[in-house]
Amino acid sequence: MTEAGVMKVTHRRYVPYSHAHYAGNLVDGAYVLALFGDAATEVCIRHDGDEGLFASYDDVQFTAPVRGGDVLEVTATLVRVGNRSRTITFECVVQCRDAKVLDPPVVAVTATGTVVVP
Predict the structure, then answer these.
(1) Which of 2, 60, 6, 7 minimizes the C-alpha distance to 34?
(2) Which of 14, 72, 82, 87 is deepest in the core (most CB within 10 A)?
(3) pTM of this prediction?
(4) Which residues contact 58 (CB under 8 A, 6 or more apart)?
(5) Alpha carbon distances (Å) from 82 to 9, 52, 55, 96, 107
(6) What is the rounded distance in angstroms from the CA atom of residue 38 to the CA atom of residue 106?
(7) CB within 8 A of 100, min separation 6: which ones?
(8) What is the tens place of the pLDDT at every residue in 39-70?
(9) Taking the mean position of all CA atoms in its chain, how far away is CA 36?
């Protein structure tokens, strides 16, 4: 999706209880980072016609827990285009928890990362 020249990709995902590994049905942070990787792949395919490769995260902030049973919305926004590198910002928001829609939703993880394309 493009808004005023900005490329944005949004994925939604239900978190199965089988991914909760800690007390309180907590899900590890790597689960969300994998979702960020999926969204970054779509950004690269749409922008460059290739999957690209994740090079690094410049910043990752875990601001709220993710739990089994949550419905997450992950948004990747292309913010800089270099010759072969792309900078993408990410946000993971908990939209639903305990079979209830959260109003307002809760921002669980934010990040900035760099991908490279051939």
Answers:
(1) 60
(2) 72
(3) 0.93
(4) 87, 111, 112, 113, 114
(5) 19, 13, 13, 36, 28
(6) 21
(7) none
(8) 999 999 999 999 999 999 999 999 999 999 99
(9) 3
* Amino acid making up residue 117: V
Q: Cα–Cα distance between 71 and 5 in angstroms, integer?
A: 28
**Taking 90 as the threshold, does the pLDDT of residue 2 lie above it?**
no
Domains present along the chain, CATH in parentheses: 2-116 (3.10.129.10)
Matching residue, tokens 């990747």: 76
Helix or strand run (H / E) with residue 87:
strand 85-97
Q: Count CB-CB contacts under 10 A for residue 56.
A: 10
Q: Are 41 and 90 in contact (CB under 8 A)?
A: no
Q: Is pLDDT above 60 for 1?
A: no
Residue the block writes with tokens 């209830």: 100
25 torsion bin: left (phi>0), alpha (psi -120 to 50), beta (else):
left
57: tokens are 């995260």
